[in-house]
Amino acid sequence: MKLSSSPKERRKRAGEWLKKLREKAGLTQIELADRLGFKYYAFVSQVERGYGRVPTDKIVGWAQAVGTEPRPFAQRLISYYEPELHRVLYEPLPECRSSAAGTSSAPAAE
Q1: Has this prediction a pTM greater than 0.85?
Q2: 48 close to 18: Cβ distance less than 8 angstroms
Q3: 7 DSSP assignment
Q4: Cα angle for residues 96, 98, 100 (degrees, 5° grid)
Q5: Mean pLDDT of the 16-25 span
Q6: 101 versus 38: which is more confidently predicted?
Q7: DSSP string of 21-79, one letter each residue
Q8: Nearest-5° angle of CA 57, CA 81, CA 92?
Q9: Sign of the dihedral through C-alpha 102, 104, 107, 108
Q10: What pLDDT is attached to residue 108?
Q11: Which of 6, 28, 103, 106 to pair with 41, CA 20 to 30 A apart?
Q12: Is the separation of the CB atoms in 1 and 77 below 8 Å?
């Protein structure tokens, strides 16, 4: 994913993906909201339109409700919501030259 896209654009793409998953699972927004314990289905609509994010405490339940494994579901969400964090956690990093920068990855001795 391009890092240059705005957070709003990334949330919108995430929402489109989430909507496809929900529809593939055969759920309405009302049914998904009910399974997740949301009082109003409008929250699901807002997330799917890019006006909100899946709350961290609902990631596992959302994934299970739409029939996907939570870990890859969360990784994909992170790629939309926090692309730099996703890059650091899941993509190969360039070689780090800690000695040239005067830093070390090892903790300082006390």
Answers
A1: no
A2: yes
A3: H
A4: 110
A5: 98
A6: 38
A7: HHHHTT--HHHHHHHHT-S-THHHHHHHTTSS---GGGHHHHHHHTT--HHHHHHHHHH
A8: 110
A9: negative
A10: 52
A11: 6
A12: no
Q: What is the pLDDT of residues 39-71, one digit of tens each?
A: 999 999 999 999 999 999 999 999 999 999 999
- Residue 2: pLDDT band by 50, 70, 90 thresholds? very low
Please tell me the distance from the alpha carbon of residue 44 to that of residue 26, in angstroms, as a whole number. Answer: 15
* 71 token code pair: 């870990």
Tokens coding 8: 């709003």
In the block, residue with structure tokens 């997740």:
36
Domains of the chain: 7-88 (1.10.260.40)
- Structure tokens that stand for 91 in this block: 């993509």
